[in-house]
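YM 10:42: Permease sequence, as discussed on the call
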Amino acid sequence: MKRHHHIFIRSVILLGFTLLLFKLMVTGNIYNYIAPKMLPYFYFALIVFMILGGRQFLRGDREQEAACGCNHEHTYSTSTIKSLSIYLLFIIPVISGFLFSEHTLGASVAKKKGYQFAQIEETTESRVDNPTENNQQEGVKQPEVPAGPDETSLENGVITPKDMYPDRYKEMSTEEKIMLNDDNYISTINLLEEEPETFAGKSIVIRGFVYREPNFPSSRIVVGRFGVSCCVADAGIYGIMVEGEQVLNYNEDTWIEVHGTVQTAMFNDWHLPIIELSSIHEINKPKQTYVYEEIDYSNLEQ
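YM 10:58: structure's back
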């Protein structure tokens, strides 16, 4: 493979990444991969790929460049098979991005990642300074929580959902019906799991896809959505258990809207919220299936 072939292929790869990023931006599919707060980095990458691709393409018409004085030659591999094998490592992701950019995570991935409350156990216990509690596989989900949402437990080195979402906690404490939407989905789920007894008896409306834990009874499901903090690699399912005979009619990955009442239940030695089902119906899959973590860290300042 000659030098100008290498330069041409490299320019095509760089411009291919540029076009892929532009396509994701125009179609809105970029939100299938990153959280909105990461968009500035995305725009920076788009501009860099465009500049590098254009510069590489223009180099193709030049003769052999002068020596740079670094005491070694800048040569290109003459082996076509070896070169193409390396370039395919970059070409295949570009082609895959154009073909499968609308793919989103569902119940099959949820089974591998696990129901979100199982992840809370790890992050919470790792922050507790009591070695006895750290060695427990099952136990109290959080240390003792202060009475008011503004009285944070930061002095103990533990940040609770009530500390992170004080405004949402006040709203949920006063409203008769808890409505989950794209903006408050993660905060509401976290607060319900933190204090299920506080919100027991309140009406609730939630939308999400159907997911079943392997050890669930047939009349129980999780209705939830994938939450993203930074990018899809850190996505985890946020949801609430739903109990009722009507759930038998819905397969996994079906998008539903659930109306019911918040109750509490024990699951794997955890005291968790569960929805006592009033009504349920299938809905269309939303254009944006993920919800995004947005924390105002100014709320955590003392």
